[in-house]
Amino acid sequence: xxxxxxxxxxxxxxxxxxxxxxxxxxxxxxxxxxxxxxxxxxxxxxxxxxxxxxxxxxxxxxxxxxxxxxxxxxxxxxxxxxxxxxxxxxxxxxxxxxxxxx
Length: 102
Known about the structure:
Elements: E1 2-3, H1 6-17, H2 20-32, E2 37-38, H3 42-54, H4 62-74, E3 78-80, H5 84-87, E4 99-101
Parallel strand pairs: 1-2, 3-4
Helix pairs in contact: 1-2, 3-4
């Protein structure tokens, strides 16, 4: 599952640090269904707002807060991220902490 708010962030990072083909492969994986796009809903945005305020000292941004909110809604316990600083600190409502991949 890939939150829709994450797509621009991922493609930016891939374009900046990888070959063009890697970015294109990521986009194709979304279209093919290999990776599923999860849309952020109103409840996710409200929860993200709470998380942004709760973790203001950490500088938790909207995208990361939305990832947490969607994970809570879907009861996901694993998150694929390179951002261990934020996701190792945030405490989701449904588990003690996320298992961070890779």
